[in-house]
Design a protein that fits this description.
With 692 residues, the protein is mainly beta. The protein has a single domain, classed as Maltoporin, Chain A (Beta Barrel), CATH 2.40.170. The protein has a 22-stranded antiparallel β-barrel. The chain has a 5-stranded mixed sheet with strand order 3-8-9-6-7. A 4-stranded antiparallel sheet has the order 16-15-40-39. It starts with a helix and ends with a strand.
């Protein structure tokens, strides 16, 4: 299969230029992520993919992670397959820590947090998205903490564009799934308002896997003389039952993937999540410069219950995030060519509180109360120099300070606190630098070469530092900042109706923050050096107005360069990770897509994804002897537009594969692992009415 993947990738390279003579409109190249201002990117040294509105409409994807998984370099891990409720994104081979190393933005604002909860994907319905911008490679100069592998920016639709309109949609699908959604936007002169709301209820593929999600958002825009004011508000709610894993242990003749694939290991576990956010941005053009002042607030409350075989753990976590992000772009007259400077400051304050108890009734008297505050202050400057119409250079610097304070109040007399402990107060102050330099040279009007080198970083989050000592006593274990050095070479070929991008990259990581599941009293730690190397190829070809083809191939070699995990009395000892493959990183990934419009208003689209085998989570030593099997999943969509109505039918996992893309090995039993099976073939239908 790996040879077939390589052959298909080569075929894409050969086929795409043949379409270059077709007179079809070129791809839109106006983006914001590359500089934090709206501008073209096709003359800048940026490895970027833009998923446009038409791409979203053609795809059979149901969620943002499903759509992202169709792109080069992006891999997902989905625990339950229930509307992306627990899905994580990994860019360029970090595995389980991909969420902490890929920065997710919505309209330029980070939605990645200082805990391990992940992004609430249900709060970002596909119907509200204008485009998605994926910038690969270190993005810490412009975006700071967490942009190690790159940045994914989800841009929502503006009510100032497209005229007055609205839509009502209903989707019914397998496993008792019912989704409804409403959008509306109105413009009067210089003022526009957009609103959206949606609700989803699903029983889920597994037992004890019910999912209830709802969200609402409002977007207000005012055009001013030389500028714009943007006020966005949103709220989201989710309640989900957690079925746990399916256990496999050949030595004990246990394989629940075969005997009870859809069963629940944890029939009493559940979680809830409520979020709110408000952002205000003011854009002003004056004196030959563009100014943006952004301010935001976001809150999140997470409640979870884990039974742990009669030893329950009930948690309520509250998080508030305040941000201020002023920035400016200007182009002074300087020698050497046309300079464009972008400079700004990012300030974030995170207030986190976690209460732990043994039941919902006793949470008013918790045995642990963890309070943490984190402050990030960063300043950056980037210069883009157009030396000539063919050659563009970029260089940038960032300095960021990080401060964290944490306390743990412990009450031994509280219910469930008899055998607990509290962590001593602790604090940490760190500062780190990021930089980048790049060049883009146009060999011809349609072919450009790119090169980039950069340094990026991330800090450990609160969930990664709250651990236990070798005596199983709670403590805060602060870690050094993780840094990464990037090197990348690429090319981009673009003509009317066709586009091709290829890139070679290497990323050397120091002090990688990662869990040591074997060694008692360590938990998350700074590992010895590791390295990611890879090749990405992606292209699009529109041979006629009726046909559109997309394809991508990703090769990723992610390895620990050196190191030994000490292990412990109840686990393996001296786990050698030197030269071993990073778990949950497939070496090969192949995507293919086809869209056909046989008649006006009719669309048939097909996507397929092949993912090679990958080592399981916690198998840093690559010693289990079993991998997550390779899999190929295909989806099919048929839609028909009749006046204001659009009707769609979707079949996911068309060939009925029994697969999973996340599994974790036991650190205590040599041949045991837990897998999280995903839905087999399933179908759904949708009706949408658009009113103007």
């Amino acid at each position: 299969m790996e040879r077939k993947a390589l052959a298909a990738a080569v075929a894409l390279v050969a086929a795409t230029p043949c379409a270059a003579q077709q007179n079809i409109a070129a791809l839109d190249t106006v983006v914001v992520t590359a500089s934090r201002f709206q501008e073209r990117y096709d003359d800048k040294p940026v490895n970027m993919t833009v998923i446009g509105l038409e791409d979203i409409r053609r795809s059979p994807a149901k969620t943002v992670p499903d759509l992202l998984s169709e792109q080069a370099g992006v891999h997902i891990h989905d625990f339950f397959g229930n509307n992306a409720a627990t899905t994580t994104i990994d860019l360029r081979g970090f595995g389980i820590t991909g969420t902490q190393n890929t920065l997710i933005l919505v309209d330029g604002r980070r939605v990645s947090d200082i805990d391990l909860s992940g992004v609430q994907w249900s709060s970002i319905p596909l119907s509200s998205i204008e485009r998605i911008e994926i910038v690969r490679g270190g993005g810490s100069v412009l975006y700071g903490d967490g942009a190690v592998a790159g940045v994914i920016n989800i841009i929502t639709r503006s009510p100032l564009d497209g005229g007055d309109r609205g839509s009502l949609r209903v989707r019914s699908a397998a496993y008792g799934t019912l989704e409804t959604g409403l959008t509306a936007q109105y413009r009067s002169g210089s003022f526009g308002i957009g609103m959206s709301a949606s609700n989803l209820e699903s029983d889920g593929y597994r037992r004890n896997n019910e999912n209830r999600q709802s969200n609402a958002a409002a977007d207000l825009r005012w055009l001013t003389e030389g500028g714009e004011i943007m006020l966005r508000m949103a709220t989201d709610h989710q309640g989900m039952r957690l079925p746990g894993a399916r256990r496999v242990q050949p030595g004990a003749n246990v394989n629940q993937l075969v005997t009870d694939r859809r069963g629940a290991q944890t029939p009493l576990d559940w979680s809830q999540r409520n979020g709110n956010r408000v952002t205000l941005d003011w854009l002003q053009r004056a004196g030959g410069a563009d100014f943006i002042v952004g301010a935001g607030w976001r809150s999140k409350e997470q409640t979870s219950y884990f039974d742990f075989s009669g030893n329950p753990d009930f948690r309520v976590a509250d998080l508030d995030v305040w941000s201020l992000n002023p920035r400016v772009r200007w182009s002074p007259d300087l020698p050497g060519g046309k300079h464009t400077f972008v400079a700004g400051i990012d300030w974030y304050q995170w207030d986190y509180r976690l209460r732990r108890s043994n039941s919902t009734l006793n949470i008013g008297n918790p045995f642990n109360v963890i309070d943490a505050q984190q402050y990030n202050l960063g300043a950056y400057l980037q210069d883009t120099l157009q030396v000539s119409p063919r050659l563009t250079l970029t260089a940038g610097l960032r300095y960021e300070r990080y401060k964290a304070d944490a306390t743990d109040s412990f009450n031994v007399a509280a219910p469930g606190g008899a055998f607990g402990s509290g962590a001593a107060p602790a604090s940490q102050n760190e500062s780190v630098n990021a930089w980048e330099a790049g060049a883009r040279y146009a060999l011809t009007p349609v072919l450009s070469l790119m090169a980039k080198t950069a340094r990026s970083f991330r800090f450990a989050n609160i969930d990664e530092i709250y651990e236990t000592s070798p005596a199983f006593l709670n403590q805060f274990q602060f870690l050094r900042p993780q840094t990464a050095q990037h090197h990348e070479l690429g090319m981009e070929w673009r003509r009317a109706g066709a586009w091709l991008r290829a890139a070679l990259f290497e990323m050397n990581v120091r002090d990688e923050i990662r869990l040591d599941a074997f060694t008692t009293g360590i938990g998350n730690t700074n590992l010895p050096p590791s390295r990611r190397r890879g090749f990405e190829l992606e292209g699009r070809w529109k041979p006629s107005s009726a046909w559109s083809l997309t394809g991508s191939y990703t090769h990723t070699d992610a390895r620990f360069r050196e190191g030994v995990l000490p292990g412990g009395a109840f686990t393996a000892l001296n786990v050698n990770i030197a030269g071993k493959t990073v778990p949950l990183v497939p070496r090969h990934k192949l995507n293919a897509g086809l869209a056909w419009t046989p008649a006006q208003g009719t669309l048939l689209s097909f996507t397929a994804t092949h993912v090679a085998a990958q080592y399981m989570d916690n198998d840093e030593g690559n010693t289990l002897g079993v991998k997550i099997p390779a899999y190929t999943v295909a989806d099919l969509r048929l839609s028909q537009r009749q006046g204001a109505w659009t009707f769609s039918a979707v079949i996911n996992n068309l060939f009925d594969r029994k697969y999973y893309n996340y599994a974790v090995r036991s650190q205590f039993v040599a041949d045991r692992y837990n897998a999280y099976p995903l839905p087999e073939r399933n179908a759904g239908v949708m009706a949408e009415y658009v009113f103007r």
